[in-house]
Amino acid sequence: MDKDEEKLIKRFGKVEPYNVPDGYFEDFTRQLMSELPDKSHKTGIVELHPMLWSSRLRGGIAAAVIAVTLTIGVYTYIGKFNVINSYERSSMPQKENLDQSKTNFDQMADYTMMDNEDIYASLVDNK
Amino acid sequence: MKYNENEILKELKNEQTCRQAFSKIVEHYSQPLYWKIRHIVVEHEDANDILQNTFIKAWSKMDGFQNKASLYTWLYRIAINESLDFIRSQKNNNNISADQNEGLASRLIADEYFNGDEIQANLQEAISHLPDVQRSVFCLRYYDEMKYSEMSEVLGTSEGALKASYHLAVKKIVEFFKLHD
Questions:
Q1: How many domains, in total, are found in chain A?
Q2: What's this model's pTM, rounded to 2 decimal places?
Q3: B170 touches chain A (CB under 8 A)
Q4: How distant is the Cα of A34 from the closest Cα of chain B, in angstroms?
Q5: Candidates B30, B38, B123; nearest CB to A29
Q6: Interface membership of B52 toward A (CB under 8 Å)
Q7: FRET pair for B117, CA 20 to 30 Å: which of A25, A97, A126, B153?
Q8: Range of B48's domain?
Q9: Please, which residues have CB within 8 angstroms of residue B35's CB and are 6 or more apart in sequence?
């Protein structure tokens, strides 16, 4: 025992300074046992089937959600782009419209891998 | 009826006898647990609530009790943790600072469940200024005279750390009275 502890004990002693209501301990066990839940009923606790929430399944669901969100986002963006494009085309003056047609024609030519001169030539023949 | 813990632990595993066995545990441990809790939290009503929570928690976790520690250590650990959680939540909820422990002595003197004198009330105020864990170490050692080896099992701290913590707590209380005398 060190000197400081000796001082404390000398000054204050180790008397219990607190008390309890009359009959508190006598009644405590009976009162507690009456409030104790029945072990067979796990009320208030909802247990999810553990398989539903396995980490693998959670990961799969998360990946699926991300994929769907990205897909919707991409389609929305492309859709918006096309809508804007068609809106812009319709509101353009005629000359710009013609230029746009030429551009589209060139693009189509590229796509079909035909020479532009051949396509133009065919168009002339068809007139 | 004599308390036989080995028999009681066997009865706990039987669904038909487990409630009766648990009531024997409550009867045996309620008083010593109560005083340990009370020294930490001070108010009787709070100590009563925490004591009930301790046993309810023990009841719900009884299936997980694996006899690795003694029942005594296990119950005391739950009780001390509940007490520490309580005083921490008091501080968080009410923004209780050290300054608000001032005046505890006069409140205790007016408390019907405190039968100490002014000197004892002043000691309780000094103890309330200690950090939470240090407060519990001091109370377990000073009032309950718990061995450091037992305390180490209950608190999960080394005996050396506990001795140092108690020594510091005593020093702080002595300093408190030097300032306030």
A1: 2
A2: 0.68
A3: yes
A4: 10
A5: B30
A6: yes
A7: A25
A8: 5-180
A9: A16, A18, B143, B144
